[in-house]
Design goal:
mainly alpha; 0% strand
Length: 150
């Protein structure tokens, strides 16, 4: 009996490669999102520090230029935090998009694997029937030979 051969094996291998590549891309997106989240945390801490400094400036007598500089520092920290928040939101969207693409790649591969499994089951059943027919034929030939000898 000839061995099992799945006609779409090459396509299945390509789908496996696509799934691995998509998993790698998803991993990169997750790492990017984590880095953006950390940058956002640092920017928010910068706002807190600048806010503390401006509070300290209000408590004590400081030159107007120093107070203005602290205000500008606070404003810059807020702008940096806004930019970090936008970058983090974008990275979250990237992660969601890559997760969807990975899920699609995984489904595509799984469909072909299930098809291969069903075809192999069919091939196994056909193979077993063919072997049974061959065995039955040999048994019948043996009986026929024994009848002629007796």
């Amino acid at each position: 009996m000839k061995p099992f051969r799945f006609a779409l094996e090459r396509l299945l291998r390509l789908r496996e490669i696509r799934e691995r590549d998509q998993a790698r891309t998803l991993g990169d997106a997750l790492r990017g999102e984590r880095a953006q989240r950390e940058a956002l945390d640092r920017a928010q801490q910068g706002i807190e520090r600048a806010g503390e400094q401006s509070g300290e400036a209000a408590d004590s007598a400081r030159p107007a230029g120093a107070v203005r500089n602290i205000g500008l520092t606070l404003q810059a920290a807020v702008l940096a935090a806004d930019a970090a928040a936008e970058a983090h939101r974008q990275s979250q969207e990237d992660v969601a998009r890559e997760q969807e693409a990975f899920g699609e790649a995984r489904r595509d591969r799984r469909v072909l694997e299930k098809l291969r499994e069903k075809r192999k089951e069919g091939w196994s059943a056909d193979s077993a029937r063919a072997e049974q027919r061959e065995s039955d034929g040999l048994t019948e030939a043996r009986r026929h030979t024994q009848r002629e000898e007796s």
